[in-house]
Write a structure and sequence with these properties.
heterodimer; A: alpha/beta; 7-stranded mixed beta sheet; B: alpha/beta; 10-stranded mixed beta sheet; 7-stranded mixed barrel; 10 helices
């Protein structure tokens, strides 16, 4: 086979970030595009996620920010006529589109060839029946369902099954009535129950793999049939927990050579049989201490696991995968690490990598959330160490929102039996429950029986626990400190045990000369010379392997760590862009980050990469060793910004950009208010109250509606809108004392405006002024945003510019400024400013087609010329098109009715961009990107709170014109009915089963729900909401957005209307 | 209390760590080599090819899954000592296992941990495999050890193994009978031959090949196993092979066996800088053009420029110009440098046993 070069290739991206489809596809997609570039290909990319690096013009030749659907991909193909298609880098979505293109003979029609794995293999990997058949052909064990439609059939199946088995009744919620059976007696008993519980009297019987280990292999195969294993991985939790929600080690630690090789052989056999070309992930369930295994699944594409394996080993799977797709064989590709050998080898590690999931449940206020086969983590952090303990504790220090170390306060006073009960169910806090049990001296044997986690890991947890107790008993003992550091325990956690600050521990360490050693990741355990600038720290080595760069000024860029809601891929975009642009300005760059899914942790992108927890300790040790010139914290989001407080006087390190003092002012409400008052900037009125009495005394100075929130609680907990006094009374009745002081804002129900810009303390340039379609009150990250604006005059924009210029002077802003304003009754109020890279920058880059990141970096390092400041506001969109950014939620993944209501706290996981000639068309496309085709059906459900009823009537009036059927709940129905009596298209929701039925058939386009008084609503209504989530029917809680949608439909929807005989 | 031990190499490199396993040893000398396998320490420890060698494991944690009854490659520990970064005592959740430290103790072998194994690996990579010692610093001074290292040479590895001879491994429905010169054979070579319906009779290094030819139970091929040390020392074995070749009996070999066969065919054998010791080595099958990942453990290689014209090269390393397999139809030899029997390592090359049988078959029919 000749290798493919100099051709046109279309790449399908993965679109917006949702839980289960995250930043890893940007990392792999970017690698793919770079590999294609090396092969001199023209890259046509379709991806509508503006926050990705792969959509940056530096990576692809042409980027179509269009909805990733079969239809749009087909249109792009028709327009561009590429010769090849790559679908293995866009997650399952891209593979599905490839299959659809194949089935509809589009590939054939345009003579388009699929690169990499063939269509049949893709189909076999997705279709369970085909997969089972294929695996049986080659004697690979797969779990198979047996179906019994009666108790007699269950009896008959006795001859075919091997205990233990799991019996599941069909169509019952949560598997009620099923169970694991080890014996014939139990089997018959449970079958009887299961058959009777199932509404169709059916049960599924499957081999139980309860307690098996979950092992994954990342395999590469070329067209000539050569295969290598990049890495295998072991989940610490037994099967049953999605690998994305598990703690994972690479390589596997508890497998013997025989076990390892048995699974390796099977994986390669599968790839050979399916003729896979490129990277592929195979997941196994392995019975502990045996060679008995079952294949769980195969993913013939790059995945989250392949991103992890790439970062764990240094072997760039996505890039090599693409080259294999282009027709190279493994031995024809140079090993990017050694540069002297080829990619035909298996990486070997002299460290262990551990990945820990980052959950976002705190945003949704769910207690001990159950985890299972549906992935729920929003992101992950990885850490490297010489021992399990070291890597594990470092990984724990890298995830966020958890306790400082492994002990959760909540379990301290909980009875042991209660904790055992909690730990028995797989839940996102299980690790903390295990540590609580260890602290309470429960034996490993018992914990093993409760959790089924491998003995080895529990033993290690015990060691960590003992070390931590030891720390507590030996305050300021250097010997114990050294042991703790060898175990990977962070200065922060040690500080907690010793009641000292992180900085104090770090100083204590320096005094006692306890410092980590930098080690290199090289894919070959030191066997070959390599120059990878990929480093980590350990306390188990003696020779430092990082040579400080002296040839040019070095700048550290602090990344954003694991992805969580509110801290998304956009910060990885910002970090990566910063690295490139600093390089162009002849700086050397050092990146500090710990998220294996990201582009910024690709060691090829930077001069040096430190894969470490992001904290003071790490930065200190890097700075001490590398002696960089400066550090930039503005690109990593809030996490990095928080570090700035501690960066003063660290080896003459320059903190580039806005000073900490100014950042403080921007973040602290009272300080900020003082500043704006001095500058005569209008802000919403607010008061701070210290108790209930205080509140009612001072509330008179404000006008309703109000926004109430505790001043120090992050994440929007106890944040509420209050429209009248009785609501206020209720709020203060239930609020706990610990939440005081409480801030009460006047809530201005106006048009929200968002601005991004850059300043050098003297000049200011706005990169764009955006308008939110949603009214103020919804978090800007959850708002639908448009550029250019529609309702804001030139004069108002000038006013906004002048307001921010005043602030820029006053706060000496050097670098980014993001601000939000509200426009109401011709008045412009400033609500907040953020002095860091924002979520909207990548969107603006696409909408203006100006490299604003590059410009901002030049400002930060003081290298712009005067001309740069001439244009004060970039106000024109690229091609004069309309650009809309819509949020994407993962509500189906985290199912809880209380959470669907949008408010001041961010809940979306990603975003999509829509581009077209008119705002309505752009909005339609952007919403299409979320999976909702607004033009497809004709029915909606409407249920709104009192204040939204006029708007609801208005929406009805509009939609009625295009023949929409509106199903409304009682109050809403009555209000509309009064306004528009006897309407043919208005229906009262009274027969709930009919509605549920329609939901299952996906008859509803969407649901409008603006009620958040969930405790009062009808049980059947909450069932509707829950079923809507299950059936992927979108729920809108922003009435202003729905108004825009109604206008859109009025314009885009076609009528089917007969001409009647004149009467 | 952990007992301190020191390491000194002939080039002066030193490090200090703590002993585990049999810590009553006061001094262990040997040739330092490193192994990059992430699994399979049990197989490495019991592989006779490592005789008189001190093995540095590059994967930092060793001992996690203990030692089990089924994965031995010989009846005892063959390496002189084991150097690791971090010993992981395994939990005793089952009677089928003993810990790595217990196993070392049982076989009077020293382990040493807390060593910067990456640095040591790089030293070996840079200087080639080195002689050195692990010693108890309370018993010896560094100077004494330095002298001992100078004085010590390592030779006659195979003789020193003292393997059992004339042991029979017979299976039901066997198709062939091989005589296996046990130069330090890994158990899995015998298992693999048995699995392929071959009866195996083991003979020792000095067993006269003429006697084999007289056996009642006729042999279909003579097999030379893997083993430790310098093949150039084994001149008698080489001439024995030449005799067997003259008798037109197929000769097969693995690793050391491969090198002896090459010598018998008058090839040159050279020492490698630091050898291949790991389970991730890519090799190309010159007939099928396919690449396989193999387990390798050798310090010597066959100079392919000295091959006679009768020899066909069958395997080559992908990432280095190292000959990995030969076939000689005229002289009826088929031999492989790497370890198709794996253990530890991938099973990719298992098919070579079938190749060998086909080779024997072909020559049986002629």
């Amino acid at each position: 086979m000749k290798t493919i070069k100099n051709t046109k290739v279309i790449v399908i991206g993965s679109g917006p970030i949702v839980i289960g489809q995250g930043a890893e596809f940007d990392y792999s997609g970017t690698q793919t595009c770079l590999a294609l570039k090396e092969a001199n290909c023209e890259i046509i990319l379709i991806n509508n996620n503006p926050a990705t690096i792969m959509t940056d013009p530096e990576i692809s030749d042409k980027v179509y920010c269009e909805p990733i659907t079969y239809q749009y991909v087909r249109w792009v193909i028709k327009k561009e006529r590429p010769q090849y298609l790559i679908a293995s880098n866009g997650g399952q979505k891209a593979l599905n589109i490839a299959v659809e293109l194949h089935k509809n003979k589009i590939l054939e029609k345009y003579n388009l060839k699929l690169l990499g794995t063939n269509i049949d293999a893709i189909i076999a990997s997705e279709n369970r029946d085909v997969f089972t058949q294929e695996m049986e052909k080659i004697n690979v064990s797969v779990l198979k369902n047996k179906i019994a439609n009666s108790y007699e059939e269950c009896l008959r199946l006795l001859n075919e099954i091997k205990f233990p088995v799991i019996v599941r009744p069909s169509y019952t919620l949560g598997g009620l009535g099923g169970g694991i059976c080890e014996t014939k007696e139990k089997y018959l008993k449970i079958c009887k129950k299961a058959i009777s519980y199932s509404p169709i009297n059916q049960c599924l019987i499957e081999k139980s793999i309860y307690g098996y280990q979950e092992i994954e292999y990342e395999v590469m195969r070329d067209h000539a049939g050569n295969s290598i294993v990049v890495c295998n991985m072991e989940n610490i939790e037994p099967v049953g927990v999605h690998t994305g929600d598990s703690c994972v080690t690479a390589p596997s630690l508890t497998l013997t050579n025989k076990q390892y090789q048995t699974l390796r052989d099977v994986a390669i056999k599968m790839l050979n049989h399916l003729k896979i070309v490129g990277g592929c992930n195979v997941q196994f369930a392995l019975k502990p201490n045996t060679l008995e295994y079952y294949v769980i699944e195969i993913n013939p594409r790059v995945s989250r696991s392949s991103a992890l394996a790439s970062k764990a080993t240094g072997y760039p799977i996505a890039k090599i995968s693409t080259l294999l797709g282009l027709g190279y064989t493994l031995d024809e590709i140079q090993n990017p690490v050694t540069k002297t050998t080829t990619c035909a080898f298996e990486p070997t590690m002299d460290y262990v990598a551990i990945k820990i999931p980052q959950f976002g449940f705190d945003k949704f206020k769910i207690e001990n959330p159950k985890i299972g086969s549906q992935m729920q983590a929003t992101g992950e952090a990885m850490a490297l160490g010489k021992t399990f303990n070291e890597a594990f504790c470092k990984a724990i220090a890298s995830v966020q929102n958890g306790p400082i170390f492994l002990y959760k306060k909540a379990y301290k006073d909980l009875p042991v039996e209660k904790i055992k009960k909690l730990a028995k169910k797989t839940n996102s806090n299980q690790i903390y429950q295990i540590f609580a049990l260890l602290e309470k001296r429960i034996s490993i044997k018992e914990i093993h029986e409760i959790t089924l986690i491998n003995w080895y890991y529990l033993e290690k947890f015990q060691e960590i626990n003992q070390q931590y107790q030891d720390l507590k008993n030996h305050v300021q003992n250097p010997k114990v400190l050294l042991n703790a550091k060898k175990m990977g325990i962070s200065d922060n956690a040690i500080g907690k045990a010793w009641r000292m600050s992180e900085k104090e521990i770090c100083d204590f360490r320096q005094k006692n000369q306890i410092n980590p050693i930098f080690q290199q990741v090289d894919t070959c355990a030191g066997e070959f010379k390599s120059r990878t600038p990929y480093l980590y720290t350990t306390y188990h080595a003696k020779q430092n392997e990082s040579k400080p760069i002296t040839s040019a000024k070095q700048i550290i860029i602090v990344g954003s760590g694991p992805i969580k809601i509110g801290q998304g891929i956009e910060f990885d975009y910002a970090t990566s862009k910063a690295v490139w642009n600093l390089k162009k300005l002849n700086f050397k760059t050092i990146v500090l980050n710990n998220n294996p899914e990201t582009v910024s942790t690709d060691y090829n992108f930077t001069d040096k990469l430190f894969f470490e927890p992001i904290n003071y300790e790490t930065v200190y040790e890097i700075v001490k060793h590398e002696k960089p010139y400066g550090i930039i914290l503005q690109f990593g989001g809030q996490l990095a910004i928080n570090l700035s407080q501690q960066m003063s006087n660290m080896f003459n390190l320059k903190v580039l950009g806005t000073k900490r003092k100014s950042i403080n002012i921007s973040e602290e409400r009272q300080l900020f208010n003082n500043t704006t008052q001095k500058l005569n900037i209008l802000t919403p009125k607010f008061i701070t109250v210290h108790d209930k009495k205080d509140a009612f005394k001072n509330i008179k100075t404000l006008n309703y509606p109000l926004l109430i929130r505790p001043s120090y609680v992050i994440g929007g907990e106890n944040m509420e809108f209050v429209y009248a006094e009785d609501q206020l009374v209720k709020y203060f009745k239930k609020i706990n004392k610990k939440y005081y002081p409480i801030i009460i804002d006047e809530y201005i129900d106006g048009l929200e405006i968002e601005v991004d810009g850059v300043s050098d303390g003297e000049h200011l340039k706005l990169f764009g002024i955006m308008e939110h379609i949603d009214k103020a009150g919804i978090h800007s990250g959850d708002s639908t945003t448009t550029f250019p604006t529609v309702n804001i005059s030139k004069a108002k924009k000038q006013f906004i510019y002048q307001t921010l210029l005043k602030l820029a002077h006053k706060l000496n802003i050097k670098g980014f400024i993001n601000a939000q304003f509200i426009l109401k009754n011709n008045q412009i109020y400033l609500i907040e400013i953020n002095l860091r890279a924002s979520r909207t920058l990548p969107f603006l880059y696409k909408a203006t087609n100006q490299d604003i990141m590059q410009q901002a970096i030049k400002v930060i390092v003081n290298q712009v010329d005067k001309n740069f400041w001439k244009e004060k506001i970039i106000d024109k969109s690229y091609n004069n098109y309309h650009y809309v950014k819509v949020p994407i939620f993962s509500f189906q993944k985290i199912r809880d009715i209380k959470n669907i209501f949008l408010g001041p706290e961010m809940k979306s996981t990603g975003e999509a961009i829509g581009v077209d000639l008119t705002l309505n068309k752009a909005l339609y496309k952007a919403i299409l990107a979320t999976g909702l085709d607004l033009l497809k059906s004709h029915s909606i459900i409407l249920s709104v709170r009192q204040k939204d009823k006029p708007a609801a009537a208005n929406i009805f009036h509009t939609l009625n014109k295009v023949d929409y059927k509106i199903y409304a709940t009682k109050g809403t129905y009555e209000y509309i009915e009064k306004q528009y009596p006897n309407s043919r298209n208005l229906f009262l929701i009274d027969d709930y089963s009919k509605i549920l039925n329609m939901l299952h058939k996906q008859d509803f386009s969407f649901i409008v729900n603006t009620r958040n008084d969930f405790q009062n609503i009808h049980a059947s209504y909450s069932e509707i909401i829950e079923n809507a989530l299950v059936n992927n029917t979108p729920i809108f809680s922003s009435i202003s957005l729905v108004k825009s949608i109604a206008t859109l439909l009025l314009e885009l929807k076609f009528l089917i209307h007969p001409i009647m005989r004149p009467s | 209390m952990k007992k301190p031990f020191h390491i000194l190499l002939s080039n002066g490199w030193k490090d200090a760590g703590f002993g585990f396993g049999d810590t009553t040893c006061e001094l262990v000398q040997g040739e330092f080599i490193f192994n990059t396998s992430m699994v399979g320490y049990q197989e490495v420890l019991t592989d006779p090819s490592y005789n008189q060698q001190i093995v540095v494991m590059t994967f930092p944690m060793q001992g996690i899954y203990g030692i089990n009854e089924n994965d031995h490659e010989s009846h005892k520990i063959e390496i002189s000592a084991m150097i690791i970064n971090n010993y992981q005592e395994n939990v005793k959740y089952s009677k089928k296992f003993i810990s790595l430290a217990e196993f070392l103790k049982l076989h009077q072998t020293l382990g040493i941990e807390n060593i910067d194994t990456r640095q040591l690996t790089k030293v070996i990579r840079h200087h080639g495999s080195l002689n050195g010692a692990i010693y108890d610093p309370s018993k010896y001074t560094e100077k004494e050890i330095a002298r001992k290292i100078q004085e010590k040479t390592f030779s006659k590895h195979v003789e020193k193994l003292q393997r059992n001879t004339e042991k029979k491994y017979f299976v039901e429905h066997a198709k062939y009978h091989f005589a296996l010169y046990d130069l330090g054979s890994k158990q899995n070579i015998i298992r693999k031959l048995n699995q392929n319906q071959i009866n195996v009779t083991l003979v020792g290094l000095n067993y006269p090949c003429e006697d084999i030819l007289k056996w009642n139970n006729k042999v279909d091929a003579v097999f030379l196993s893997n083993g430790p040390g310098d093949p150039n020392e084994l001149t008698k074995m080489v001439s024995q092979v030449q005799t067997i070749i003259k008798h037109q009996i197929p000769v097969l070999g693995i690793c050391l066996g491969f090198q002896i066969i090459a010598l018998a065919l008058n090839c040159e054998i050279l020492k490698m800088y630091f050898g291949h010791h790991g389970i991730n080595h890519a090799v190309r099958d010159m007939e099928t053009k396919k690449i396989i990942i193999t387990s390798q453990n050798h310090n010597y290689f066959v100079n392919d420029k000295t091959l006679p014209s009768t020899v066909q090269t069958t395997f080559y390393s992908v990432n280095a110009p190292v000959l990995q397999g030969i076939k000689d139809d005229d002289n009826r030899c088929y031999a492989i440098q790497f370890h198709p029997e794996s253990h530890p390592g991938p099973n990719d090359a298992n098919y070579i046993f079938q190749n060998m049988i086909k080779f024997v078959q072909k020559h049986e029919n002629n």
